[in-house]
Task: structure prediction
Amino acid sequence: MARHKKFQVSMDATPELDISSLIDVCFLLLIYFLVTSTIIPRETDLGMSLPAANPSNEQPKIEPMFISVDAAGVIYTGVGVGQQILDQNADDRNVPLLDKLLNMYAVNARSAGSNPLVQVYVDPGTTQQRVIDVLNSLAGARISSITFTDLVD
Result:
């Protein structure tokens, strides 16, 4: 009969997983994504004061500017006979005529010592992107007193 030798496993030979290189790779990926990401302010973070539920009886010091957006995305300013067409291309996110008019209105209102106030009427068929374009233009002119209205004269 053959002799069988029993092999004894030493306690030092236990398998180990070296994760030190894995930790280095994780930190490198974290640093890469932190450096390459850009911080863009979200459109919902624009500070705008919306009107209260109860209407106020006091009149503003200046006439509010009235902006309307129709179903085709055309932006108008004014009401009635004095209504002007500003920006007609609904596919273009830039609204240069509205930007220029809002900047002039804001400068005039602030020089008169009052806060610029804008009323916005949006047709129910308007795309949301066009409304966001108008709100971005208002934020660019630093106008934060905005009222959405459904009353058109």
User: Anything to note?
Assistant: The radius of gyration is 31 Å. The first helix runs from residue 20 to 36. The chain has a mean pLDDT of 79. The beta strands are 65-69, 75-77, 84-87, 117-122, 145-149.
